Amino acid sequence: MIRKFFRKSNNKPSKIDRLLDKYNLPKAYFAKNRKAITRGLSIGAFWALIPMPMQMAGVMAVTPFVKFNVPLAIAVVWLSNPITYPPMFYIEYITGNFLLQRDALADIELTMDWFSANWDLIASSLYAGAFFYATVVNALMYMFTNYLWVKSVHKERKSKTTK
Prior knowledge:
By secondary structure, the protein is mainly alpha-helical. It is 68% helix and 0% strand.
């Protein structure tokens, strides 16, 4: 199922392959194998949960150290957006307060003025909660995607042997 979705349909070089060859881009960053896909999803999920501008730059900063599917990681980063920021940051802030054993601020407003005025009070709790969720979601995303991939391979092999 998931493997078939990412697998090539033919052996001819695709437009993407020709583009990679033309600009001499490493194919490892566009690979469609189990390791590249699972790493790309988990790295993208990690950076999506970190409250910072230009989360895609975080993904790109990891590329020299880990080989993964970069376009997929960048697409996953886009799941966090201005619509999802307020509830996501609020949950991270509350969790950070719990982890740091602090009391939450009573009069929270979702305005830029309030954030600017109270940034010193909320930053450590926000980032503590963000790193907690980013680490947990990163690990879960990696394990779940890897499980689905392996399960689809076993299912595909089983259906081939029964034919």
